[in-house]
Specification:
The protein is low in regular secondary structure. Among the domains are: about 200 residues, Jelly Rolls; about 70 residues, no CATH class. It is built from 8 helices and 12 strands.
Length: about 750
């Protein structure tokens, strides 16, 4: 694990960079399973709430009875690319510790979460002298079940085997209270001598590290037998660790030494508190409802003329006329129920609304809204209990609870006591419309004329509807409306005596047109294979199942209409996650129908494989790589100070001043290239190049070298004027009047100025 310490500090940074680089794709999703799409859910990770109108972090309402337990993040390795019976081969240097990435058409060992709901993960390799994965091994996402029997969630899992080194699977950073996962450790002989086989599973958080499993220093075969040869579920409390990553480190050197992982979930519980002022306008939701304003609209505020905190809508009125204004009256409608507990504070006839339907219990005929009127309801305030006429504690209105010794009669034997059965004789007419509700041979009296509309001789055309065949029996009760000898149930034209077709199996299709006249479940056989279309899974015998054709958009009854299948893999494009079979799912593929291209970083319509400038920044990909910039990031280009088209790394003269960088004291400043005195100021702007305290111009006039600190102007008489400019010799009087004196004074002043710092 020594190599792991080297990348502990950079690993979180790399993961953050990977997350930031991931494309954000909006898709219909309901992470917390509360029925509200994440795009519309203010609390997408908490099933107890979904709306926060005023964005104060408190939900408008909390779901009643919600436990608050929810999945923060998960993976069962269903999203990443997986292909059967293909090994993963590392094409890098097996002696270098580094992150491994995916190869085309090989199982994914790493995954960026850019679509779907599953977590991303990365894989880090450490060399221990072995060949690593360069020899090709079954590693990464897998759907082979020969070893594990089946995966615990979905069809895929993650396999780590024959590492010939050390690999660490690192999941995306997450903040949760618990982590649970399923693992299968293949039962074989694990090495206890160099190189040692070991497995370490831990959660590396910002606050602390939680060790879940560590076999280091132990014999896996002897000390961890319970994990061998079977799926084991592991649950661990990680609440104290803070945000972090689940890390699985495995060291093996044999193909039979395999670890399988599946169904990794991170869960937490809700800590939300309900908001009492949803629009944050200073008025509570309860007050706004009482005052008639919208508690979800911060612009709709109750009027309060005197500013006493009681809205004008209820202040000053005396609804019950008891002499006490409503704002001070605890019972505004004087019905004996305080306003705080009155569902209808301004209605003296109502005070309770148990089912919340807006109708008070006194006026509501079904207080618990269970469909059973209160007089017939055993518990009229409990929507889960109907009636119990015989008081045997069994609900008479529920099928299957009928007890003839307790629940009264069940006239039609349907398992529902008559007291709770709306149709006691099961003749299709509800009891309240049935002339004789206990006689299935008498029907209804729709016109309430006292005559059974379904009985011979009582037909009244003004009251009882139609009598097509004029036999005195209304059609509603006549088994053969057209009197053609074929009962209506078997008659394809029950109201036309001239058409006497037979439907033997009563499937609604005339026997003459029924491919299966004696089978009520079948009537057509499109492909003539002897199997009816209802039972036939491929009605047109074109090799595509009916179900697939419906989903794939082709005609299931036309053998000439087959689903589009671009890569001819037997899975139609509508269902195929990778239409062109290039190893990149269509949702991530910029060219889903072109197997040679899948990414277009700069969006120019040319795939990265053919595009010489992937990020469209005007620098070729190979040039950017050579110049140390990212060829996939259009915001990052090679540095080219002089703009000559050659990046600084490759340009021998970065600033283009004609002096090679190796000889240029200022390689990035084209105005400077020398600094003779090494004072950090280039000679072109430095007035004293050699740093001898004499300005360059003065030294030039005094015939000394301005680039040589050992060469200074000579001043034989020490009068501060160099000999070359001194108009007096040693024998002349220094107080000689005239032009000479003025010249000397001027020179001295110039010299003094030059020597100032």
């Amino acid at each position: 694990m020594g190599g792991m310490n080297k990348y502990r500090l950079v690993k979180p940074i790399l993961i953050v960079m990977m997350l930031l680089a991931s494309a954000h794709i909006v898709s219909a999703n309901d992470t917390d399973g509360d029925g509200t799409d994440d795009a519309n859910d203010d609390f997408p990770n908490d099933p107890c709430a979904d709306t926060d109108t005023d964005s104060d972090g408190m939900p408008d309402t909390l779901t009643t009875g919600c436990s608050g337990s929810y999945v923060v993040a998960h993976t069962s390795f269903e999203d990443p690319f997986t292909i059967s019976s293909v090994k993963y081969t590392d094409t890098g240097d097996d002696s270098v510790d580094r992150y491994l990435w995916n190869n085309l058409n090989q199982p994914h060992v790493s995954h960026n979460q850019s679509s779907g709901t599953e977590m991303g993960f990365s894989l880090y390799y450490e060399s221990n002298g072995g060949v690593g994965l360069t020899d090709g091994d079954y590693f990464g996402t897998v759907n082979y079940t020969g070893t594990v029997g089946n995966f615990t969630d979905g069809n895929n899992g993650y396999q780590m085997s024959d590492v010939d080194g050390v690999t660490t699977l690192i999941l995306d950073s997450v903040n949760a209270e618990y982590v649970n996962f399923d693992m299968f450790l293949q039962d074989t002989s694990y090495e206890t001598s160099t190189p040692i086989d070991y497995l370490v599973i831990l959660f590396n958080g910002t606050n602390s590290q939680v060790q879940i499993l560590n076999t280091t220093g132990y014999d896996i075969d002897g000390d961890f037998q319970s994990y061998l040869g079977n799926w084991t579920s592991v649950v661990t409390d990680i609440s104290s660790a803070g945000a972090g990553t689940l890390e699985v480190t495995f060291s093996t050197n044999a193909a039979t030494e395999s670890l399988f992982l599946d169904n990794i979930e991170f869960t937490s519980t809700s800590q939300l508190v309900e908001d009492t002022d949803d629009d944050n306008d200073g008025w509570s939701d309860v007050d706004e409802n009482s005052c008639g304003t919208d508690p979800l609209d911060s612009n709709d505020i109750p009027s309060d003329s005197n500013g006493n905190g009681v809205c004008d809508a209820i202040e000053g009125d005396d609804f019950d006329g008891d002499g006490i204004p409503n704002d001070r009256d605890p019972d505004d409608d004087n019905d004996g129920y305080d306003d705080d507990y009155d569902a209808f504070p301004l209605d003296p006839t109502e005070w309770v609304d148990h089912d919340g339907d807006g109708t008070g219990d006194n006026a509501d005929t079904d207080d618990d809204n269970d469909g059973v009127l209160d007089p017939d309801d055993q518990d009229p305030l409990n929507p889960f209990i109907c009636s119990d006429v015989d008081m045997d504690a069994a609900d008479d209105c529920s099928s299957g609870t009928f007890d003839p010794s307790n629940d009264g009669p069940d006239n039609d034997g349907d398992g529902l006591a008559d007291v709770g059965d709306p149709d006691d004789d099961n003749d299709g007419a509800d009891d309240y419309l049935d002339q004789d509700p206990l006689n299935p041979f008498t029907c209804s009296d729709i016109d309430m004329d006292g005559a059974d509309d379904c009985s011979y001789g009582t037909f009244d055309p003004s009251n009882d509807g139609l009598d097509t065949d004029g036999d005195g029996l209304a059609d509603v009760g006549d088994p053969d409306d057209d009197n053609d000898g074929v009962i209506d149930d078997n008659d394809c034209a029950p109201l036309d005596a001239s058409i006497s077709c037979v439907d033997s199996d009563e499937d609604g299709v005339d026997d003459d047109g029924d491919a299966f006249p004696d089978d009520s479940t079948e009537w057509s056989d499109t492909d003539g294979d002897g199997v009816g279309d209802n039972a036939d899974t491929d009605d047109d015998d074109d090799g595509w199942s009916d179900q697939d054709e419906v989903v794939c958009g082709s005609e299931l009854l036309d053998s000439g209409s087959v689903p589009a299948d671009s890569d001819a893999d037997g899975e139609c494009d509508a269902l195929d996650p990778d239409d062109d079979d290039d190893g990149v799912v269509d949702s991530d593929d910029a060219f889903p129908s072109n197997p040679t291209e899948w990414a277009d970083t700069d969006g120019d319509g040319i795939g990265n494989n053919a595009d010489g400038d992937d990020d469209g920044d005007g620098w070729g990909d190979s040039t950017e790589s050579d110049c140390g910039s990212d060829p996939m990031d259009g915001e990052v280009s090679p540095k080219d100070i002089d703009g000559d088209g050659a990046c600084n790394i490759q340009d021998p003269d970065d600033d283009g001043d004609g002096v090679a960088d190796e000889n240029d004291a200022f390689p990035l400043d084209n105005a400077e290239w020398l600094d003779t005195d090494g004072d950090g100021l280039g000679d072109n702007s430095d007035q004293d190049d050699d740093g001898d305290q004499f300005v360059d111009e003065y030294e030039s006039e005094c015939m000394s070298d301005p680039l040589d600190p050992n060469s200074s102007p000579s001043d034989s008489d020490g009068d501060g004027i160099c000999d070359a400019m001194d108009v007096f010799d040693d024998n002349e009087s220094n107080d000689t009047p005239g032009f000479g004196l003025i010249s000397a004074i001027s020179v001295l002043a110039l010299a003094a100025l030059a020597r100032r710092e």
